[in-house]
Specification:
The protein is globular. Strands 1, 2, 3, 4, 5 and 6 form a 6-stranded mixed beta sheet that branches. The chain is of the alpha+beta class.
């Protein structure tokens, strides 16, 4: 199977791409910085989260983060997907779908029947998430400028 839990070395390789991931995932809403990347990534990893990697020919082609988070609205610990990324040369091959499905399987095996993720408006991954059964739970709205 081309999907496996990332090794420490593979995780280091993934972390080198943090600014590219942040730039694409936030579709221009966030100026990527190493400080912001650390603030997003380290809590997830330090709380037992990890990456799954999609490997072919000894090359990481994509990855997905899986972990847990406390949902203060429901007072439950839930499964989370904080990051999904496929490197540009390997896109449009179904890798993101396979990674998402495997992440959900693993989180379900770990006992989590609720899995959440955040996605910025305009991020094309939102279409994939909907196809996989994710639905909007809440929306953050913003007003820029004066009324």
């Amino acid at each position: 199977m081309p999907i496996q839990k990332a090794t420490i070395q593979q995780t280091k390789e993934i972390l080198k791409c943090a600014l590219d991931v942040m730039d694409e995932a936030t579709v221009g809403n966030v100026v990527p910085s190493w400080q912001k990347a650390k603030e997003l990534i380290w809590p997830f990893l330090n709380n037992g989260g990890f990456y799954l990697v999609y490997m072919e020919n000894n090359t990481i082609q994509g990855w997905i983060g899986i972990g847990t988070n406390y949902d203060f609205y429901t007072d439950q610990v839930i499964g989370i997907i904080p990051e999904l990324y496929v490197l540009p040369p390997f896109r449009k091959k179904g890798i993101a779908k396979q990674l998402c499905e495997e992440a959900c399987r693993q989180l379900n095996k770990m006992g989590y029947d609720r899995i959440q993720l955040n996605v910025f408006e305009g991020n094309h991954a939102k279409q994939l998430y909907r196809k996989l059964g994710f639905r909007d739970v809440y929306t953050t709205m913003e007003l820029k400028g004066k009324i």
